[in-house]
Amino acid sequence: MAPIVVALGNPLLDIQVDPKHGPAYLEKYELKSNDAILAEEKHLPIYDDVVKNAEVTYVAGGAAQNAARAAAYVLPAGSVAYIGSVGDDDLKKTLQAANDAENVQSAYQVQPSPAKTGACAVLISNHDRSLVTTLRAAEQFTPDHLAKPEIAELLNGAKYFYIEGYFLTHGIESALEVAKGASAHGKTVVLNLSAPFIPQFFKMQLESLLPHVDILIGNESEAAAYATAAGHGDASLESVASTLAAFTKSNASRPRLVVITQGADSTLVASSSPSASPANIKPTDSNPKVYPVPKLASDKIVDTNGAGDMFAGGFLGALATGKDIDEAIEVGHKLGQMCCGQIGPKLSFPKQTVL
Ligand code: 26A
Question: What reaction(s) does this enzyme catalyze (predicted)?
Fold first, then answer.
């Protein structure tokens, strides 16, 4: 089967540090407890440090790659492909094996040695996670990869495109190519804000891509970071969601949806045009529409790393099977919560029924 969902992002291997060491490493490397950043010079020793001095677990990561595995969880085998740049090394083999096991086609651009696959140190403290990323080969992605016949064929065949905001740190040209091509053909483009530093420091790239985006996904701190960057720091979450929904759109015949998650609190869905939105966002609904999140007992939470990605991938996978927005949000909530019960960005196997 030709994939109907294609995701684009930075492939990373997550190095999850045993939670008992989390707080000490946060302090040592001057990190916030709930954040996602690119490693600065002072952070670079952390990768060797945790491997030498703490217990670590290696887990397949990279925000869009996690979402791709979540979409694959709810779709028939062969429905999902993932594009990103890796090195020719053991880290890549681990990522590819995880994708193979979960029916995601890895359409990697492989950089020659000595380029190494990117990595993300994950520090857990309570229910927070701090992510410190070194992109390495991931940021060597070049647009010519998209023109290779087998990749062009993938892009032509797919109906849903998922781009992580993190990719905009280096890959705006490729992201624009994918999104413009998709929206010109009436296909659905989904963008995830990914982290507060994306709207904060990459606002120009974000706003150049946004006109081609049909569904924007983010969480409360990312939405707040956008509001501040756009000069409305005091706006409510509801009004930020509506502002983003109303942002210029190249394909104006389709409304834009903005989905804002808030951890255990309700998810908001704003639409630029409720009357034209997919089923279940009705003109009579509040805009944004509010979706309560089922309760998850605190002792069921192992760690929250990847929960937002699994929400997004589950939501997208459900939409791609033809579910409406209400059902897709429900599937997203289920996969997000399932991920909270696992170490790292993982889902439970054997598969549970979530659709
Ligand atoms: C450019 N940056 C910072 C990143 C990331 C990232 N994925 C792509 N680019 N920083 C962290 N992640 C991934 O986010 C997942 C959790 O949402 C981590 O690899 C982790 O699996």
Answer: adenosine + ATP = AMP + ADP + H(+)
Residue labelled with tokens 């359409």:
107
- Ligand 1, atom 16, residue with closest C-alpha: 306
pLDDT digits (tens, 9 = 90+) for 255-290: 999 999 999 999 999 999 877 665 567 777 888 999
Q: Is the CB of 98 under 6 A from ligand 1?
A: no
Residues of the chain where predicted confidence (pLDDT) is lower than 50: none
Helices (H), 75-124: 90-101
**Model confidence, pTM:** 0.97
Token readout for 283 is 């003109």
**Helix and strand totals (H; E) in the chain:** 13, 16
Pocket of ligand 1 contains residue 313 by CB under 6 Å? no
CA 46 – CA 61 distance, rounded (Å): 17
By the 10 Å C-beta count (0-12 exposed, 13-18 middle, 19+ buried), 292 is classed as exposed
pLDDT of residue 123: 97
The minimum-distance atom of ligand 1 relative to the CA of 10 is 8
Question: In the block, which residue shows the tokens 């150049």?
Answer: 208
Pocket test for ligand 1, best of 31, 99, 120 (most atoms within 8 A of CB): 120
Instruction: Report the C-alpha gap between 111 and 142 in whole angstroms.
Output: 10
89: which 2 tokens? 């090394």
pLDDT score of 282: 73
